[in-house]
Amino acid sequence: MDKSFKIKIDDTVLAYMSKKKKRDLTLTISSTGGGCCPTFEISEVSLKKPDQSDLFDIFQQNDVTVYISKNVKVIAPTLRFTLKKNLIGATIQAEGLGLKRQQV
Questions:
Q1: What is the chain's percent helix, strand, coil content, to nearest 5?
Q2: Which residues on neighbouring strands pair with residue 61, listed in sequence order?
Q3: How far apart are CA 17 and CA 20, in angstroms?
């Protein structure tokens, strides 16, 4: 992973994490689909430390430990974490990623 980017954690994310009493933010990429369906990558953000931290690049930002999977491709100058509210709560999303989409 190219480490020449900045990390920005929005204030809404920091407030959400503080409310949940969490100080770890983990970004992973997983593939979905396959077989008769197209495959594509999705990003997942969780508020826990990864089990295998050696598979992650580790950063400190705003008193938060950020774990970014080594297979993440950041294409923007700033990797930004934002909070998206929905009917049943909220999710943290990462912006500035290059995710693969492959047609069958």
A1: 10, 55, 35
A2: 64
A3: 5
- What is the CA angle 44-17-52, rounded to 5? 45
- Write down the pTM of the prediction: 0.84
> So what's the pLDDT on residue 81?
96
**How far are the Cα atoms of 8, 38, 82, 85 from residue 93, in angstroms, in the given order?**
12, 23, 5, 10
Q: What is the mean pLDDT of residues 16-32?
A: 91
Q: Are 92 and 82 in contact (CB under 8 A)?
A: yes
The helix (run of H) or strand (run of E) holding residue 18 is helix 11-20
**Is 50 exceeded by the pLDDT of residue 104?**
no
Task: Work out whether the CA dihedral 78, 74, 42, 71 comes out positive or negative.
Answer: negative
